[in-house]
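Entry for the shared binder. Reason: the reviewer on the internal report wants the predicted structure included alongside the sequence.
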Amino acid sequence: MIQSSIHYMGNKFKLLPQMLPYFPKNINRFYDLFGGSATVSLNIKANEYHINDLSNHVYNLYKLFKETSADEIIKYCYENRDKWGFTINETVKKEIAKLNKEPFEKCRDYMNENPTTLGYYFLTFYSFCNQFRFNRDNKFNMPVGNGYFKKESEQPIRSMCKFFNQENVYIYQLSYEKVD
């Protein structure tokens, strides 16, 4: 099974073994009307994928994976990890949130003043439960967490880019009843 690199509440990854047997074997068009992390789409075989999410931030992540190479995303994450001084010391796992709190807050403030989808995506590797959330002023407002960008983070990014770069993957930001 392919795990999404978008960590989103309600992700269906753990439910896939129970869900997948109920899908038909031959799917011409698969509509993921509430796409979220795109976990279901990533794990269904279809001739076409129509993935929709009303959230501007989720839709922009789909666009990021469709329009940006995995190598560019990964390079950006490593460069910013070093630029902001995040710790990656495996021996201090229990202390990592405390050690990364100051760099995270400085980076988050910068990204909120200079917003980009890639910048916000980078922040998710260090945010609580790797989630993203925005306040009414459209500012990223998650607190620091125990995660960080590491070698194991690369493969899910590569999988997302490979999937979204297919010509048969269409993305939308519409109310579900308007997707056709």
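Summary line for the report: Residues 25 and 166 are 20 Å apart (CA to CA).
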